[in-house]
Amino acid sequence: MRFLVAECEPPQAREKRRESVGRSSGETYLEVLHKLAPGAECDRIKPTDSCAEIPGREALTEYDAVFLTGSPLHLWQDSPEARRQIDFMHRVFASGTPSFGSCAGLQVACVAAGGKVRPMGDRREAGFARRLVATERGRAHPLLDGRPASYDAPAIHTDEVEALPEGATLLASNRVTRVQAAEIRCGEGVFWGVQYHPEISLREVAAALRRQSDDLLEHGLARSNADVEQLAQQVDALHAEPNRADLAWQLGLDDQVTVPEYRTRELRNFIEHLVKPTRAKRGR
């Protein structure tokens, strides 16, 4: 199989993430995809960069899947970076290549297909999205195959989908963010996406908490930087020892987050239930 990872991070955010966790969002995706699909050929591009060469429709048809990463990019702002990312997604839809996105990746697909994204205001999901529940349509959708009736997932975002495009299917919600998972069809393309982050490790969750410490204080989710650091240290410790029941209990987490095979379930489902059947239809 041949995969293309499209990094939604602008250059400054990409380097800031590398400083805190050692890799960009696209590099995280590459590592996870190599584990989920050993032997797959994976390329990475950076559509937000002004100097980036964006593949056209025909070039995109040579891939079996396209993955869009998370990012602090605000899709509700008219910026050159946002326009480049949305233009890239238009090409993905036109190519008919199956696509998947997490966090900003979902928001990019939504806007490109005619939906809307907005800032969350004072609400936040920082660290983990709690009590995610599939909709009636979501319970039968292969993206969420194997997920329990209610589950948690890594999540870090300050924007959300305000309105899905026409014809999209809402698959999961919680009390903080209505659109947590969705299927979007546009032109020849099919996109499956989630607002949370099935691709990131607990170590990356801890790093994200540290990067967003000031924002957490501003919105009353922590009283001090020391509070944020204490939480990040617990998450780091659980990453190092995922079988520690005491840390999982203190953080209110179960195996849906602590076990990598469960945490990455949506990515695995996308490859098994959409990418491989589409590849077979194309005679590859």
From TrEMBL:
State a GO cellular component annotated for this protein: cytosol
The alphabetical list of record keywords is: Ligase
User: Mind telling me which InterPro entries this protein's record contains?
Assistant: ChyE-like, Class_I_gatase-like, GATASE
EC number assigned by the record: 6.3.5.2
By its UniProt entry, which Pfam families does this protein fall under?
A: GATase
Give any GO molecular function from the UniProt entry: GMP synthase (glutamine-hydrolyzing) activity
Q: Domain Glutamine amidotransferase, which positions? A: 48-205
Query: Gene3D superfamilies from the xrefs?
Result: 3.40.50.880
Task: Report the superkingdom from the record.
Answer: Bacteria
Q: Under what name is this protein listed?
A: GMP synthase (Glutamine-hydrolyzing)
What organism does the UniProt record list as the source? Sphingomonas xinjiangensis
